[in-house]
Amino acid sequence: MADKAAELARLWKVAEAVVAELERQGVAEVLANLGFDPTEMAKAVIKAADGDVVPFTTD
Q1: CB atoms < 10 A from the CB of 45, how many?
Q2: Which end of the chain is more exposed for a tag (fewer CB within 10 A), N or C?
Q3: Does 29 fall in a domain?
Q4: Could you give the 3-state DSSP secondary structure of residue 35?
Q5: What's the pLDDT tens digit per position in 10-52?
């Protein structure tokens, strides 16, 4: 259970950092209006920090 709590805390902290950076760049409100979910970006950041390959797809 402690591992799950630590993972969630890490995800929350990274998501907060993502939102703070988007706010600093002045795009947070626009992205929020478009339905942007920072959780997926935070998960990708964590995977990259852990050394996993993060594929970026272009649709």
Answers
A1: 17
A2: C
A3: yes
A4: coil
A5: 999 999 999 999 999 999 999 999 999 999 999 989 988 998 8
Round to whole Å and give the CA distance between 15 and 4.
16
With 80 as the cut, is the pLDDT of residue 54 above it?
no
Distance between terminal CA atoms of the chain? 38
- Number of domains observed in the structure of the chain: 1
Question: Going by C-beta distance under 8 Å and a sequence separation of 6 or more, which residues neighbour residue 17?
Answer: 42
In sign, the C-alpha dihedral spanning 9, 10, 11, 15 is positive
Position 58 scores a pLDDT of 74
